[in-house]
Amino acid sequence: MAEAHQAVGFRPSLTSDGAEVELSAPVLQEIYLSGLRSWKRHLSRFWNDFLTGVFPASPLSWLFLFSAIQLAWFLQLDPSLGLMEKIKELLPDWGGQHHRLRGVLAAALFASCLWGALIFTLHVALRLLLSYHGWLLEPHGAMSSPTKTWLALVRIFSGRKTMLFSYQRSLPRQPVPSVQDTVRKYLESVRPILSDEDFDWTSALAQEFLRLQASLLQWYLQLKSWWASNYVSDWWEEFVYLRSRRSLMVNSNYYMMDFLYVTPTPVQAARAGNAVHALLLYRHRLNRQEILPTLLMGMRPLCSAQYEKIFNTTRIPGVQKDHIRHLRDSRHVAVFHRGRFFRVGTHSQSGLLSPRALEQQFQRILDDPSPTCPQEEHLAALTAAPRDVWAQVRSSLKIQAKDALEAVEGAAFFVSLDSEPAGLTREDPAASLDAYARALLAGRGHDRWFDKSFNLIVFSNGKLGLSVEHSWADCPISGHMWEFTLATECFQLGYSADGHCKGHPEPSLPQPQRLHWDLPEKIRLSISLALRGAKTLSGNIDCHVFPFSHFGKSFIKRCHLSSDSFIQVALQLAHFRDRGEFCLTYESTMTRLFLEGRTETVRSCTREACNFVRAMEDKEKTEPQRRALFRLAVEKHQALLKAAMSGQGVDRHLFALYIVSQFLHLRSPFLDQVYSEQWQLATSQIPVQQIHLFDVHNYPDYVSSGGGFGPADDHGYGVSYIFMGDDTITFHISSKKSSTKTDSHRLGQHIEDALLDVASLFQEGQRPKPRCRGLQEEDSGHRGGSLPCHRRGSGAPMKSTNF
């Protein structure tokens, strides 16, 4: 998602504490601190899991083992082979009357030791099994005998009842790839976009790097991989995100949309009440580890570490770098409406407030006639300012308005009750979706608290959305939460016939607390400057959202192709038609197969993809030739994707090598060259992870429409996409209006044409027709076509307001 923008602009500023310090001291110290942070996290998780009965295992398993030992002892059998007798001899002699108690204690101690040894053995065996990645490299749909055996063993050693963090101690560490392989793959990735002269020059720099610096830098990374949980993730978080001094808005945040074609209720307070209640239900399940871990192939677990910071988390600005503040619990949300801030409690003495009670509290805020205080309306624009500026202002604000600031930063999350409607409209469908995306990504520059882990945005017509800060976790984590929220508030909580939350109000609840800010004059001037910068940044973003309904995942599967690779190769064709050249393409994929893994880059602009694009533009090429080249491009992309997921990617390794070189003050022209490149096309797929929560056959409109992010380059595009059910793909495109080279709507048209042209290769030259979804509308002129027809299932799960 938005990480591409941060990765492109990252330029670490590392200094040694002393001029005469040995060059290797800073990096050794940093490696030591990385490991220390890792071990602190391990101890914290161990203690939490111990208190909740998750680790070492369920107390019932210990009780079962202890009971079995006691039964064997009663039957005059000694399963300990004499060890319990030796333990009894070591226990204090309390007299004859306590002889039986000594036996019970000896049995308990032996059971505990045996229990711990068995669990430790299981963890080690499972970690060894999870280190196998041969299954990932096998052709799609084919499974070898070793992989089948591996799956069976994983099932045996995984146990029956798994919880969110059950696998954390069994996940392998992310390997450090061979530096020779990384450089070779890098040169292969840039070959299609470089001239012969430039490529020869880059190859010479690479050979010089391998000869002079690579082995030393690689040694430090190997050392860190042995000592810390992950050799790259903590540096990625710090140097790409927390040390960035740019505005979070557009640069570091991304958005998630509501249902595209339906709104369950037009009542703003009711939608907010159900959504907040659903989010807090998710937090409750998270705290109790009742969320099931994500499993690939239904068996291979992914790391769950990023789930820890979804709620009660704020990114605190610093002059040189930010830090992430996470609270164990929070019993309130911060709410913004018409320039005023409120603190709304989410719990009473009896527990979590009902949706109807929360609706009542939000309605009280909407009905509150009190005016804003001077400059309070635009205060949140400071969170969109450059980070060093906001850090300096916050130090004054923390003194002048400590309680109000703590209420916002200490909230479970931030809620913005927007005074304007949003979402798809009949009158101008294309423009309305574009405005919806801009409202979620940037708002008006002063109505989001961009430091919070996420902002829940509720528009006046009942539409929802999220604005998510990127540093604490990646998109699949917030996407998982958002899927649960939409399904729960719509299908489980529901609404009454008049659009309100079910249940009854609670008149005895205290009024929401209005937050008051004492703002000195110097802060007011900073707010004005921050607002001006935020509006400039917001006004420069060009967003375009369109649902492609000609075909979807089901058609691609019938072609026996990977759906993601199909889109990525088609994007190369679309971008080439848009710009007339090939460019470095950033596609984000996860490395959560490993402990504390985050993301890796798939360099989707391959030689095979370029050959296919040229063939599509060459009128002399036949369709069978083009189809064969397309399959080769898809296979190459799949190979790159699998290599990246298995820890054999290019960019995170190069990033870590670059960080070490900066610590050592060791200049590398090759690494400088790598980080001078521009990613003019940044792409990401929004994964659908909990399809079981939605009934796409009976209620096809009730599916998430994904989200988007800002462009990675001033003259580039940001493109994300989501497969909505089997027959629709929704694209989210962004670019800068200030660029004369880009146009989001133009690229959208090229994407549609490219997908249709590729599909025609597999349908005997016929273009697929769009699936009817509703009333035909005249387009606004941004792109050709019409609003897809509105499809209804057998009935809506509740009253809905369309468009």
TrEMBL record:
Residues 767-803 are annotated as: Disordered. Residues 175-752 form the Choline/carnitine acyltransferase domain. GO terms for molecular function: carnitine O-palmitoyltransferase activity; palmitoyl-(protein) hydrolase activity. The active site is at H470. It is a multi-pass membrane protein. InterPro entries: Carn_acyl_trans (IPR000542), CAT-like_dom_sf (IPR023213), Cho/carn_acyl_trans (IPR039551), Cho/carn_acyl_trans_2 (IPR042231), CPT_N (IPR032476). Its EC number is 3.1.2.22. It catalyses: S-hexadecanoyl-L-cysteinyl-[protein] + H2O = L-cysteinyl-[protein] + hexadecanoate + H(+). The chain crosses the membrane at residues 50-75, 104-126. PROSITE patterns: ACYLTRANSF_C_1, ACYLTRANSF_C_2. Pfam families: Carn_acyltransf, CPT_N. It is found in: Cell projection, Axon; Cell projection, Dendrite; Endoplasmic reticulum membrane. Keywords: Acyltransferase, Cell projection, Endoplasmic reticulum, Fatty acid metabolism, Hydrolase, Lipid metabolism, Membrane, Transferase, Transmembrane, Transmembrane helix. The keyword Acyltransferase applies. Palmitoyl thioesterase specifically expressed in the endoplasmic reticulum of neurons. Modulates the trafficking of the glutamate receptor, AMPAR, to plasma membrane through depalmitoylation of GRIA1. Also regulates AMPR trafficking through the regulation of SACM1L phosphatidylinositol-3-phosphatase activity by interaction in a malonyl-CoA dependent manner. Binds malonyl-CoA and couples malonyl-CoA to ceramide levels, necessary for proper spine maturation and contributing to systemic energy homeostasis and appetite control. Belongs to the carnitine/choline acetyltransferase family. This is Palmitoyl thioesterase CPT1C. The lineage of its organism: Eukaryota, Metazoa, Chordata, Craniata, Vertebrata. The gene is CPT1C.
